Amino acid sequence: MCFGVEVRVLSWALNISKMASSRDVNLQRNWRGADRKSTVKKVGPYYSSPESNSNIGQLVPGKEVTYIDSLTRTYQRAAIKFPGDENVYYTLIDNLVKPGTEKQLPALGPSSFGLDNRNFNSSTDYEISVENAINNRPSWDINGELFDYLYQLINYAKTGVHDYSNIKLTGFPWGQLQNYFGEVLGPIVCCNRNLLSGIVPSSLGSAKIYMPPDSERLYDYKLIVGNDEYLISAKSARGVSNQVKPQFVTQATEDSGKLGSLRTTTEFNLLKILGSETVVSGALNGWGLIAPNEMPSDAIQSITSIYRGESHSKKLPNPELLIPFVKKYMPSRISQIENITVGEIRYKCEQLIENWSKSGIANTTLKKIFNLYLNESRVIYVKMNINKTDGHPSFTASAGGGSTLVNSLYLRSSNYATRTADRIGFQVS
Description:
Elements: H1 2-31, E1 36-39, E2 45-46, E3 57-58, E4 64-67, E5 78-81, E6 89-91, E7 118-120, H2 123-135, H3 144-159, H4 174-192, E8 208-211, E9 221-225, E10 228-233, E11 243-244, H5 246-256, H6 266-276, H7 279-290, H8 297-304, H9 323-329, H10 342-356, H11 360-377, E12 379-386, E13 393-399, H12 402-405, E14 409-412, E15 425-428
Parallel strand pairs: 10-12
Antiparallel strand pairs: 1-4, 2-3, 4-5, 5-6, 7-8, 8-9, 9-10, 11-15, 12-13, 14-15
């Protein structure tokens, strides 16, 4: 019995070793040497830093990514970026389609057709631009069957008529089509098919269309009729994916005139600091607002006086000013406080703000502010679904509303001690 157990344990250990070896070979053979475009192959967790063991989300098969070679240390934490997102994330290398493989999925989102960050004077102008962009894609990228299918989808979005009888539908990138090409088709179906009838008071036949840059989090396109603007999201009504920056929230809520007593809260003033100041001073002054006795103004000034650009590794200029802070939050470092870097202090403040925002009165107040932001933004949700058996699409629309959208919310930092890529933002689900 013991011998059998030992054999099974040894076999398990050998299998794990082989798996690790094959993943390392994958990294070295297929990825190393340059940044590479790819797509997500399978669902898997991704992380905000290479050291983190707590994931911040799940990868969506078919989503476009860029592999970042210089930031990848091991196959377990391959560095990636999403389109329009300057944040760097980390995931298992096997979660990504190997570059150059025939199975790599084509990019089908607005930016892949050059539609992002552009204004269109009419639905017709937009439709012509979409069709020209598809025509300009090479056949090795969008093959004949998929090419024909995209045109049938456009025709259906315009007229409600389609014919898939002569199209071989097997092997299509359904995730890409539904999640990303749906963003491309949305303005066409809204303007031509009265999809938003009963949701918006205006006729959209003469609407102008604005496709924002990929970095826009709240909406995927905007329809403009006279002085009325309608923000449309192609995601289902499940809240806002990824992070929304504080400056967008404070601006919209202040413009609404409905903040009331929320305007004077610590939470709103924290958002103003995080949205208007640099990544460094925002984190330091943010925690100084929450806990002024722990992060006094003279300590903040001493750090910001030398902390410029990428100088994360500079030592504290006046460590004695931060003795109470280090004793409380970094007790193991107090004996060598002079070796603590400005980047470590800034990152600790970001972590403290994140934890503070996750519960209690702070979390409740932040939700109230964010719900006001969503309600004032008037986001409408237009979702495309596809029957993968016969290829037939369908579109649904629903009006948004803050209180029904936000389940979980907190302020999240995507930085670490040696990196200041972005401001702290709202993480919403």
